[in-house]
Specification:
- The structure is a single chain.
- The protein is of the alpha/beta class.
- The protein has one domain: Up-down Bundle (Four Helix Bundle (Hemerythrin (Met), subunit A)), CATH 1.20.120.450.
- The protein has a 6-stranded mixed beta sheet. Strands 2-3 form a two-stranded antiparallel sheet.
- A hairpin with a 2-residue loop joins strand 5 and strand 6.
- The longest helix has 25 residues.
- The termini are close together.
């Protein structure tokens, strides 16, 4: 995460309420792992989705649950735990107040169909690019990775790795996570080892593994969507619903990376792709607070994301801990980061672009920008 390089706005005073107008577009920069190419785009190895170097007080698997949505407003009530899946809403609904929509909670089982549909759509976009032979060695926004490296990343480091960890969890085998601090380095090392693999073999291997993983997602019952933990190679035990979200991060954001490398510098993430990822961006920030940078920091600020999948949140960072909650009113916070849509927010958090505006107390915004480490 490139230290939150959000653009600055010139005036607002510390007490100024959160801006309500869409800010002007600012030119591009989490990275992701936000990474990488973390800045993703700058030259660090591409980043994988969430991670944490300084873990929160409780294990992430215990913190996150479908009952603890991160949306701007309360999501729909959890669907009954029946054997038949409920059909998820296709898009956010208007709230009675009219300001922020009631966003879907992608962590709840009621959103399973929607989340998996987004994975299928983003995967199709990824395949469309890699299926063109001329694109194989094209540059991407993921640092020094080429299109072929993103295939290696998905094929071995991610998809086949998830399948292995899934089977280990089913058998009850112990698994020790490596931690986030080595994530970028390891992802890069493994991805580059597959550069010599014939293109047709690499793509075939990816698609075969992906189909197997998707079949596991499709078969998940309600009690295992949030009640079955799989140990992530870097992050440790996580509820199953994280893994379809990781696929959206990989297929959605890395497809954007490839499009950028092929000349589409102003592309946006699909609305649903970015919308589903918004809650996970807060977990990403929470998991990548640099403890050295956060020493002695005690700040509050707001984050505003416009659009159907947006909302506004109050963030508090103290003693190295990042906490956040939906907020109806940000008038009392000393500073605000304002994004015009979910795509700008997600791509900035992943370090791909520099979007959004900062208003209010510059000491707060400067400290906020230096809080996070890259993964």
């Amino acid at each position: 995460m490139p230290n939150w390089p959000w653009s600055k706005r010139e005036q607002p005073a510390a007490s100024t309420p959160a801006p309500q107008a869409s800010p002007p577009e600012s030119p591009p920069s989490v990275a992701p792992e936000i990474p990488p190419a973390e800045p993703v785009a700058q030259a660090s190895p591409p980043a994988e989705p969430l991670v944490q170097a300084s873990p929160p007080a409780e294990p992430l698997a215990q913190q996150m649950s479908p009952e603890a949505p991160q949306a701007a407003n309360p999501p729909p009530e959890p669907a009954p735990q029946a054997s038949v899946q409920e059909s998820p809403q296709e898009s956010p609904q208007e709230s009675p107040q009219g300001r922020s929509p009631v966003a879907i909670n992608p962590m709840d089982y009621s959103a399973k169909n929607l989340v998996l549909d987004v994975v299928h759509a983003d995967r199709a976009g990824f395949y469309q690019i890699i299926d063109i032979p001329e694109n194989w060695e094209a540059p991407t926004r993921s640092g020094h990775w080429q299109v072929r490296d993103l295939v290696g990343h998905h094929m071995i480091d991610v998809t086949e790795g998830y399948l292995t960890r899934w089977d280990m969890a089913r058998r009850g085998d112990p698994a020790t996570p490596l931690g986030l601090l080595v994530m970028a380095q390891e992802l890069d090392r493994v991805a580059l080892t597959f550069r010599n693999l014939p293109r047709e073999e690499a793509i075939s291997r990816l698609k075969s593994s992906s189909d197997r993983l998707m079949a596991k997602f499709e078969a998940l019952p309600a009690d295992e969507w949030g009640g079955f933990n799989i140990t992530h190679v870097f992050m440790g035990p996580l509820p199953t619903f994280f893994y379809p979200a990781f696929q959206i991060m990989d297929y959605g954001v890395h497809t954007w990376d490839m499009r950028w490398g092929l000349g589409e510098k102003d592309a946006k993430l699909d609305d649903r792709t970015a919308g589903v990822l918004v809650p996970y961006m807060f977990i990403l920030m929470q998991s990548t607070v640099d403890q050295d940078s956060a020493q002695g920091v005690d700040i509050e600020y707001g984050i505003v994301v416009d659009g159907d999948w947006g909302g506004q949140w109050r963030v508090h960072v103290k003693d190295g801990q990042f906490t956040y909650a939906p907020a109806d009113d940000l008038a009392s916070v000393p500073a605000v980061f304002h994004f015009r849509d979910a795509s700008d927010f997600v791509l900035t958090t992943f370090g791909r672009i520099e979007a959004g505006e900062a208003s209010g107390d510059t000491q707060v915004t400067d400290k906020a920008r230096r809080l996070f480490f890259r993964i």
